[in-house]
Amino acid sequence: MPQDATKLQDTTERTRTETDSLGSLQIPAEAYWGIHTARALENFPISQRPISVYPDLVRALAMVKQASARANIEIGVLDTERGLLIDRAAQRVIDGEFHDQFVVGVIQGGAGTSTNMNANEVLTNIALEEAGRPKGDYGFLSPIDHTNRSQSTNDVYPTAIKVGLALNLKSLLAELSLLRQSFLAKSVEFHDVLKVGRTQLQDAVPMTLGQEFHGFATTLGEDYNRLTENAYLLAEVNMGATAIGTGITARSTYAKAVLHHLRSITGLDLDTATDLVESTSDTGSFMSFSSSLKRNAIKLSKICNDLRLLSSGPQAGFGEINLPPRQAGSSIMPGKVNPVIPEVVNQVAFAVAGADLTVTMAVEGGQLQLNAFEPVIAHSIFQSMTWMQRAMLTLRVNCIDGITANRERLGAMVGSSVGVVTALTPFIGYAAAAALAKTALLTGRNVADLVVEAGLMSRAEVTKQISPMRLSGLEAITEAIPVIRSSTDVVSPPED
Asked: Residue 123 class from Cβ within 10 Å (0-12 exposed, 13-18 middle, 19+ buried)?
């Protein structure tokens, strides 16, 4: 169907005439949208992205309209015949039909009015067809008088955004959980692989590669919990507020009735705001929720930074792990393979951080009884969630699940690492350990060999103390063994 105003000028296409307070326009005969949508297509050729790119938002709009139709029937302001027609039309959209008819751009002036009108017109014309009537027969069923009864854009739009985000969050959390499980599986696979830990990019004490990947999984688990906790921000809705929160044009019984039906339709634990004037003008909940998405994105980006470092090389870098080769990495260097999957996740994180700033500025830009910038708020958060979900999917399937460890390289680095000597300081003392560390750095020799040669510990005790279980802290050191002295050793044993 048409995505811009130029399509409206195709005189070879069958049309119908629709009229609003500004005049008349020719609408493609097969279009389920109408004149208000047509004007939005003319006015907002900005993003070239229709709202249908966010299916959960479209479904949420239909859910709000369905709940309103049921509430209006219940309180007696809409006759059953028309109400049920709207109800059935909404259900078809909820089930995935007619999404291509939601054509207005995601970025639009008017605080979401174009989106609300697009929904009203589409549902009305679906309902008219169900009744055996032609599209545009608004004398029988009106987008405004019937489908939008007891409503305003200013309560429909923010409520639909919150419901849509809550629906989308379920998918995001499911993918986040799967990614966490992938990291946990790798932590089990690498549980016995010793490696050198690093602080400030300098060699530190040993750990296992399994511990490192378990840390990644724990980080993602924390983000899962934070996002789950912040879901409550999406639960407070302002249906019944109508224009500015006073409820003008809606009966006093409408808010309670529409909440009941909306909870039943969505399966969400929604509540009506206690102060409808405040909740209509305040968009702080979107800012807080966006911030939790940014936290998840930034922490995931940090993990991807680590994966790129750990896999760097493969010859002149860390070379500790191998990422699955996904594509040729250079048009000039044969055989080069780049960490393209972590790189794309990094870029998604940058975009999410930028979107969060956009949300912050849009929230601040609200004036008096309404925030006119909810369209860019909605677009920013939905885009962040969509990109994050896709980024986590490709990271899991195309990267994490196929990571392997360079066990021999890791073992050699641990064996020659001066960080190993830290585990021996309770037995040989700090001064002796420092001297041995310096010797190991200068000569490149194995620390364990130097300790035994110095007569400070037996081979059996050194082997015991630098076992993977003890070096990684999985097995606690409970007491120091007697210090073994060489004839030239002047180092005193450590004091308790």
From this structure: buried
